[in-house]
């Protein structure tokens, strides 16, 4: 989902892009990664690959670690060899998720899930291997037209359910992949220019809400009654992996690098909605 929007954003700028999916490049295979670097010699590498099945990671942590930890380490090693800048996409799950204030980029990490532990392993590998050219970009609550996500699920369920019970005790930042892709392009260019130092950045849309609040906004944008969405607690939807109660991220390092942080989430989803609706309900969207 993010990779597609990033590829599209770079294409609009006439950048030379090699977009390798999992079949084309196993990022945890050092030989294949070295071969790809030798052929393409990239100036900037953006790692959008990840094991994102949060619950499955609880029982398959070794497999998740191969993608989320070993893969970034392998990419970082080749970036060091070829002098490439690495932008590595990470997650809010590296934090405990019990914040009162937004997490700063240098806030202590304390993952509570296997997924969070594997993502933190990837961060540490990138920062240790590339202290001068490694950029970690944490994000959260991604949605877009190019893949399955909460917003598209709500669009689907609005047409199928009279009412929906949605969790209201988890707070975060819905983030449009188109906005994050554009921010990654800006960061990559600034990194090459030397104006964006290596280290951790937070790439989420501004403001915050709960899943319940996000679902109500989706219903509003659909022209449906938001009161059909009813609040419930995380306990009603018990899952193998604990979810962060509050993992709102601060954006100070982008601002310090002269890069405007991402806009408010409500503004973003309003602009994103026609494409999301067309992706989930192509016939009804066409009728509108």
Main traits of this protein?
alpha/beta; 11 helices; Rossmann fold; 4-stranded parallel β-sheet; globular; 288 residues; 45% helix; two-stranded parallel ribbon
What does this protein look like?
- This protein has 288 residues and is an alpha/beta fold.
- Helices cover 45% and strands 13% of the residues.
- It has eleven helices and ten strands.
- A four-stranded parallel β-sheet has the order 1-2-3-8, with helices on both faces. It has a two-stranded parallel ribbon with strand order 4-7. A two-stranded parallel ribbon has the order 5-10.
- The longest helix is centred in the N-terminal third of the chain and has 22 residues.
- The model has no long low-confidence stretch (mean pLDDT 96).
The biggest beta sheet is recorded as:
4 strands, parallel
Considering the protein shown, what is the CATH homologous superfamily? NAD(P)-binding Rossmann-like Domain
The assembly state of the depicted protein chains is single chain
State mean pLDDT (0 to 100 scale): 96
Which parts are unreliable, with pLDDT below 50 for 5 consecutive residues or more? Answer: none
Beta-strand percent range: 5-15%
- Amino- and carboxy-terminal Cα gap: 25 Å
How many strands? Answer: 10
Number of domains: 1
How many helices does DSSP assign? Answer: 11
The radius of gyration is: 19 Å
CATH architecture: 3-Layer(aba) Sandwich
**The level-1 CATH class:** Alpha Beta
Structural class from helices and strands? alpha/beta
Helix content percent band? 40-55%
Shape: globular
- The CATH topology assignment is Rossmann fold
Question: Order of SSEs, N→C?
Answer: HHEHHEHEEHEEEHEEHEHHH
| Major beta sheet, strand line-up | 1-2-3-8
């Amino acid at each position: 989902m993010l990779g597609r929007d990033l590829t599209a954003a770079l294409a609009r700028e006439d950048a030379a892009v090699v977009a390798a999916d999992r079949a084309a490049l196993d990022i945890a295979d050092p030989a294949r990664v070295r071969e790809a670097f030798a052929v393409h010699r990239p100036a900037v590498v953006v790692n959008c690959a990840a094991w994102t099945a949060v619950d499955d990671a609880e029982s398959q942590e070794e497999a998740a670690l191969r993608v989320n930890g070993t893969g970034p380490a392998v990419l970082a090693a080749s970036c060091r060899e070829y002098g490439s800048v690495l932008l590595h996409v990470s997650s809010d799950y590296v934090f405990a998720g019990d914040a009162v204030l937004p997490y700063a980029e240098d806030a202590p990490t304390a993952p509570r899930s296997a997924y969070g532990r594997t993502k933190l392993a990837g961060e540490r590998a990138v920062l240790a291997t590339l202290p001068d050219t490694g950029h970690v970009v944490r994000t959260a609550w991604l949605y877009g037209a190019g893949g399955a996500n909460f917003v598209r699920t709500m669009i689907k369920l609005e047409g199928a359910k009279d009412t929906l019970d949605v969790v209201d005790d988890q707070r975060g930042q819905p983030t449009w992949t188109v906005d994050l892709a554009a921010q990654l392009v800006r960061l990559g260019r600034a990194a090459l220019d030397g104006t964006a130092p290596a280290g951790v950045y937070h790439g989420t849309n501004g403001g915050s809400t709960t899943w319940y609040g996000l679902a109500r906004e989706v219903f509003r944008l659909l022209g449906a009654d938001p009161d059909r969405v009813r609040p419930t607690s995380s306990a009603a939807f018990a899952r193998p992996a604990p979810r962060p109660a509050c993992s709102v991220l601060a954006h100070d390092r982008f601002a310090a690098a002269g890069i405007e942080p991402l806009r408010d989430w409500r503004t973003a989803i309003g602009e994103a909605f026609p494409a999301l609706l067309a992706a989930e309900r192509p016939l009804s969207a066409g009728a509108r």
